[in-house]
Write a structure and sequence with these properties.
Structural class: mainly alpha
Distance between the termini: 45 Å
Largest sheet: none
Shape: rod-shaped
Helix content: over 70%
Number of helices: 2
Order of helices and strands: HH
Number of strands: 0
Length: 85
């Protein structure tokens, strides 16, 4: 996975968490029916779980890409072949 793809996953995770957590806070101050709160609470829980899963995938991919890039930039140059002659 590329760094760009991992950034997109992280952005999607942050957005999902922001939307649903703020929705829960707003909803807690409103006077809605119990059924409305239960349904939206379940939707929020599922969406937050998906957001966390997507964020974990994006974070792991970002760390993996970073770990693979570091050894390549700090590795000593490969020895040149000996000429036979």
């Amino acid at each position: 996975m590329t760094r760009r793809q991992s950034r997109i996953l992280l952005a999607a995770a942050v957005w999902t968490l922001y939307v649903w957590i703020s929705r829960i806070v707003i909803m807690s101050g409103q006077h809605n029916s119990v059924g409305f709160k239960v349904v939206h609470g379940i939707l929020a829980a599922v969406s937050i779980a998906f957001g966390l899963a997507v964020g974990k995938i994006g974070w792991d991919a970002r760390r993996s890409a970073k770990a693979q890039a570091e050894p390549a930039s700090t590795a000593p140059p490969a020895p040149q072949g000996q000429s036979v002659g």
